[in-house]
Design brief:
It is built from eleven helices and seven strands. The protein is α/β, with parallel strands linked by helices and about 270 residues long. The protein has a seven-stranded mixed beta sheet, with helices on both faces. α4 (about 50-55) packs across α5 (about 75-85). The longest helix is centred in the C-terminal third of the chain and has 18 residues, at about 215-235. It is globular. The model has no long low-confidence stretch (mean pLDDT about 95). The chain binds S-adenosylmethionine (SAM). S-adenosylmethionine binds near residues 5, 71, 73, 93 and 98.
Length: about 270
């Protein structure tokens, strides 16, 4: 299962090179590159960098905070937090190709000293108890059946009172998700929880839920705008298509329908360990 998930995301391999080429095509030089220049490819979740910044506000981060990003992807959210708050972020992700690219991209924007990425599984976090001041996981649990393990490990590695942000795609009331979607081409690697299940999972792991925000309408609008632009101009040069490949337009169309018909919902949780 873990292999299938990593294969789904890994694309053709040498990701950093492909991203560098696409940036040049878009007229951007690697020298002087800003984190915002990478956001259309490295903030790999619905509503991108804007959503990360909104979630980060709930984390009350200081410059000396040690933060964990579970399922860190290409490292966009980790770099956004490190740049905005001066904190240190450790990312862990199942897909080695993403971890390698995340390290390269961090060097390009001069954040290599503030972020670190390692390959690993969210259901078996290789960190000490009480190691982190705060943690987040953004659009990751949709690939993981054993969600109880993600949240129990997150609780274990957080200091008591530490904030844990979960932002994920949930099963909606409108029926089964239409595939392919950015996290799965086959149903065998798509595992969506309902909002009721999420509440139980988080509280059973020992978290106190401080706030819940359903952003489905904003997500629908975000994807509708992307589909409109895709229909007029095709995929932008610096986009998720670099690793999602030729299925990217079909995934975008399906996400619009999944959101319009409430087959999926996007919900974020602010929790206290
Ligand atoms: C949609 S991407 C989101 C990446 C990142 N959080 C972001 O928002 O930009 C999902 C990520 O979850 C990772 N992932 C899936 N299952 C995982 C697991 N069991 N442990 C760690 N990472 C996992 C994938 O490799 C992928 O990078």
């Amino acid at each position: 299962m873990a292999d299938q998930v990593a294969t789904h995301y890994a694309g053709g391999g040498a990701l950093a090179n492909e991203i560098a080429q696409s940036l040049r095509k878009a007229g951007k030089d690697l020298a002087g590159l800003k984190t915002a220049d990478l956001a259309t490819v490295d903030e790999f979740h619905i509503r991108g960098r804007k959503a990360t910044l909104e979630l980060a506000e709930q984390m009350k981060l200081s410059a000396d905070a040690q933060v964990l990003d579970i399922g860190s992807g290409l490292g966009g959210p980790a770099r956004t937090l490190a740049e905005t708050y001066g904190c240190t972020v450790t990312g862990i992700d199942l897909t080695e190709a993403f971890c390698e690219a995340a390290r390269a991209l961090s060097g390009w924007v001069g954040l290599g000293d503030h972020v670190a990425f390692q390959q690993g599984d969210a259901t078996e976090l290789p960190f000490a108890d009480n190691q982190f001041d705060a943690a987040m996981t953004i659009h990751v649990a949709m690939n993981i059946a054993a969600k109880d393990k993600i949240y129990s490990h997150a609780k274990r590695v957080l200091k008591p009172g530490g904030i844990f942000i979960v932002y994920d795609v949930l099963q909606g009331e409108g029926g089964d998700v239409l595939l392919p979607v950015p996290w799965a081409r086959e149903s065998s690697i798509s595992h969506l929880a309902t909002s009721g299940e999420m509440r139980s999972l988080l509280t059973e792991a020992g978290f106190k839920i401080l706030d819940v925000h359903d952003s489905t309408s904003e997500s629908q609008q975000w994807f509708e705008e992307r589909l409109a632009s895709l229909n007029v101009s095709g995929p932008p040069p610096v986009s998720f298509q670099i690793f999602l490949g030729s299925d990217f337009p079909a995934m975008t169309r399906n996400q619009v329908q999944n959101l319009q018909e409430r087959r999926i919902r996007t919900v974020s949780y602010t929790c206290e360990a």
